[in-house]
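Homework help board

Subject: predicted structure for assignment chain

Our instructor gave us this sequence and asked us to write out the predicted structure in token form, then describe one feature. I got the tokens but I'm not sure how to describe them. Can anyone check?
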Amino acid sequence: MIYILGVDHFTVQLPHQNNDAEKVAKFLEQVRNICQEKKIGLIAEESSEDALSYQNINFTHVGKIIPELGIEYLLCDPGLIERNRIGVKQRDIIAKELSIPFPPTTPEQEKNINEVAGESDRKREKYWLDQIKTRNVVNKEVLLICGFEHVDYFIDIAKKENCAVQKII
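My token output:
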């Protein structure tokens, strides 16, 4: 079973100076509880070494507690080389193609970027599933942590491939 936990990347997933310590602590406690209750054997997280480097960080918040949890861990998002190989466009490139500032300054600009980025997001979500499946997860419970906007799409992709999947609310 793949359990999916949707998050806001900048509120609780990625460490930075504007994190709300209380929200991050609650999120990490939620992850610990899910791992214990669901007997999670693998945590897959929407990030990559390239993404961490770009953000100038070494670990996500969850990545920092992996040694404590003693659970297999996977950064399942494709890096830059892999993104190019599978045809995933970065949002900043899409913004440039649309003549929109990046990061966008209005909700309308964000919406326009997201509409174009949808195809790339589906490729990424399929890539995550493929990466998870390579980890011999047949008899392993998996927790996927990803941006909340990916949850329903990932569920659709997983179900099409006959994978048991459940959203955590």
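Reply (TA_rk): Your tokens look well-formed. For the description, you could write something like this. The chain has a mean pLDDT of 94. That's the kind of observation they're looking for.
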